[in-house]
Design goal:
Layout lengths: L32 E6 L17 H8 L21 E3 L4 E3 L5 E6 L7 H17 L3 E6 L5 H7 L6 E6 L19 H6 L4 E9 L4 H9 L3 E4 H7 L1 H8 L5 E7 L21 H12 L3 E8 L10 H18 L4
Parallel strand pairs: 1-4, 1-5, 5-10, 6-7, 6-9, 7-8, 9-10
Antiparallel strand pairs: 2-3
Helix pairs in contact: 1-9, 2-3, 6-7, 7-8, 8-9
Bound molecules: manganese (II) ion.
Length: 324
């Protein structure tokens, strides 16, 4: 609703991702981009590792202002898609007219691991069936397996996994659905082709050996830093028809992401990750991505939420390319 001077009179509450319109029923989803929150942190290797990632979707919604905003500047006709944003660094507008929707959060119920993973896959499958580019906001990294499983209608696809850690353990103390094993589970899906693991720096030898044995393409954080984000992706990630991307924000350097679950020093600068993601977008069609391990209880100044908002903005902009 607009006021008499043509400005917004009211904003919907609570905030959606980037102010995108809500979609209440997945069968109505017609947008090019579908955001879904996955407020799940029961895959965390607690009590070893701290939880809190289930608050990630709410925090990203609240902090997705002043990067790209779906309705800013105001005045575009309803249904015309995003207003877009201007990148002063290259002089182009991005995301103008791209239609997006926030479908809400997957209904997570405490204690129901297989039920929760099933609901995550079902929601994502319905989004992918409609042809939307799925953006899943975690949540701990274990969600990438049920999200990737639900992406089957968009497959077969290759997976590019950004993470300081391999997350390739077969199991931890008998548990196979943790945030340290989802890349292994993804690798077992029949419609997943190649896997690339980018940004490794805290990786047990056994997992390194398993990655090599399974033919995973790998690049360490040091290789990204020494070669640059674009060059390392050009060298390591194969050309592809369809790509699914998983972004654990702990691939960034520790001071940038103090509000993540297991921050690690010596990681990627923001621009190196942005450049790497842009290069991945040039390797093949991106069918969907997840962004995980935003941990709001430790994100005291919301800086990690903000960097997450920029990553989503920049990656979507690379995927759709300049609009003006
Ligand atoms: Mn991870």
């Amino acid at each position: 609703m607009l006021d008499e001077r043509g400005n917004d009179l009211l904003w919907p509450a609570p905030r959606t991702f980037f102010g995108a319109p809500r979609c209440e029923d997945l069968s109505d989803l017609r947008a090019q981009v579908g955001f879904v929150g996955v407020p799940y942190d029961a895959g965390t290797l607690q009590p070893w590792i701290r939880t809190g990632q289930s608050a990630g979707p709410a925090s990203l919604r609240m902090n997705s202002w002043n990067t790209f905003d779906y309705t800013w500047p105001p005045g575009s006709p309803p249904g015309a898609g995003a207003a877009g944003w201007f990148d002063i660094e290259d002089g182009h507008g991005y995301l103008e007219g791209v239609t997006m929707a926030d479908v809400g959060d997957v209904a997570i119920t405490g204690g129901d691991t297989q039920g929760n993973l099933g609901r995550i896959s079902d929601a994502v499958r319905r989004m992918a069936e409609g042809g939307a580019l799925v953006v899943a906001v975690g949540g701990d990294h274990s969600i990438s397996f049920p999200v990737g499983r639900g992406m089957e209608p968009a497959g077969p696809f290759d997976v590019v996994h950004f993470d300081a850690h391999p997350d390739f353990a077969d199991e931890y103390w008998g548990s196979r659905y943790t945030h340290g094993s989802q890349l292994r589970r993804l690798s077992e899906l029949p419609f997943v082709s190649s896997i690339s693991a980018i940004g490794l720096r805290n990786c047990p030898k056994e997992e390194h050996d398993d990655l090599r044995r399974e033919g995973v393409h790998i690049a360490t954080s040091r290789e990204v830093l020494e070669e640059g984000g674009a060059a390392v992706i050009e060298r390591v990630v194969p050309e592809s028809d369809r790509i699914y991307v998983s972004i654990d924000i702990d691939v960034l350097d520790l001071p940038l992401v103090t509000g993540t679950t297991l921050p690690e020093p010596g990681g990627l600068p923001y621009r190196a990750l942005r450049e790497a993601l842009a290069t991945v977008a040039g390797k093949g069609r991106i069918v969907g991505f997840d962004i995980v391990e935003l941990n709001p209880p430790y994100d005291h100044n919301a800086a990690t939420a903000r960097i997450t908002a920029w990553l989503v903005t920049h990656f979507l902009s690379s995927i759709f390319g300049p609009s003006s």
